[in-house]
Amino acid sequence: MQKVTHTRKPKGLSGLSRFADTKAGRYNPRMDPVIPVENWRKGSQWAVLIKKHAEVVVDDEVVLPEFQKHCRRRPLPEFWRDWDRPIPAEAWKAHNCIPDEHYVQTLLAQSGLEEELTRRSVTHSAWDLSASKDRERRGWHPVTYKVSDATTRLIKSIKDIDNIYYETENRREWCTSNGKPAPCFLFARKFTRGAGLKLLDSSLIASK
């Protein structure tokens, strides 16, 4: 907690990756005019919010109802495979929206608070799933680190990341804290239970 407080509190900023989502087609025009498309944002589900922004989320009575009506996730293919009946054609045609990748970002943009946010996630994840055998799930979830992956080298490589390239915006951001160069990430995912226990037992997380 000391590391998180030291990194975030002095600047009074929330850590929340976000960008204008223009390619995924998740924005539902039915949200307009309550949520205009220019306020539609996408980003990581993981965030560190200061008290002011957390209160905005808790008190929201405008954006959330629109998400509940018009931003719903299409059923995942693995659930369809378990059905005893054919996959309904309308399931493929349904508007697909992933609310936990859009809600907080869009709400804070709608509230005019984007100048009080850092533009990057505080949680590291690896998305190179090119070797995935399941084409339907390829790219949907980050790599899960197993026990054999949980090494000093892996943790050091994550800690050493000091810049992030945003492909959709064609820009690179160098990470800082209080005006000084700093590691980009405070957390990392996804680790199996065994990998997590190995890291805790061997104190790899705290090692330099």
UniProtKB/TrEMBL annotation:
Q: Glycoprotein as a keyword?
A: yes
Q: Does the keyword Cell division apply?
A: no
Q: Which InterPro entries match?
A: BC10-like (IPR044174), Glyco_trans_14 (IPR003406)
Provide the coiled-coil residue spans: none
Sorted alphabetically, the keyword list is: Glycoprotein, Glycosyltransferase, Membrane, Transferase
How does the UniProt record describe the way this protein sits in the membrane? Single-pass type II membrane protein
One GO molecular-function annotation for this sequence? glycosyltransferase activity
Record protein name field: Core-2/I-branching beta-16-N-acetylglucosaminyltransferase family protein
Q: What is the lineage of its organism?
A: Eukaryota, Viridiplantae, Streptophyta, Embryophyta, Tracheophyta
